[in-house]
Amino acid sequence: MKKVFALICVSFLLPSTVFAASTREDLQARVDASKVVLDQIMNAGDRTVPSNILKSATCVAVVPSMVKGAFFVGAQYGQGVVTCRTGHGWSAPVFIRMAGGSIGFQWGGQATDLILIAVNDRGMQDLLKNKFKIGADASAAAGPVGRSGTASTDWKMSAELLSYSRTKGIFAGIDLDGTSVSQNQEDTEVYYGTPHHFEAILGGDVGVPPGAVPFVRDVAQYFVEARAQ
Prior knowledge:
Elements (H helix, E strand, L loop, with lengths): L1 H12 L10 H19 L8 H4 L4 E28 L2 E2 L3 E25 L4 H5 L4 E2 L6 E3 L12 H4 L2 E9 L10 E4 L1 H8 L5 H5 L10 H16 L1
Parallel strand pairs: 5-6
Antiparallel strand pairs: 1-2, 1-3, 3-6, 3-7, 4-7
């Protein structure tokens, strides 16, 4: 009964655009927003992603404005893109969705720009073969910050994904445990105009669409700069 109640409340908490079909213009706007979020976080001075983490990245996902709201039942939902490192650069993006919920006495709302960095060989490709849950199917931790790259190396042993967030609103932070991550096949097909398997895209077998070049180029640039340090 609680699950049914939660689902009903979640449907009211989330904006109606979440459930609407995306147009290619919507998806291009999402790619553009992801680039902006990435640039702003990577240029946040001493509060950016350490170079020793970025140079270990196998995949980078950006979810602009992940929505979290609460009215007795908490809910969070976001849509974004992911690109992965291949043998010849960084891949074209695949669209993903993130969703989760929790029951408790809560009140408020927030929007969070989120970056997820996969830091081991398993990468996002394996995780996206099926919908996976953070904390159950994949370990995640809040990533250390600091441009100097002297962050603790504990994350190498304890986490597959590192998360970075920029939060607006009345909540102080974001908890990703229990949040599911899945590929958004419908949006990916709309954006590319033809069906492509996500593994082919993330493996580098599909060319980067012109509209996604600035985003992928930025990821590649930050990666190269981190490797040079």
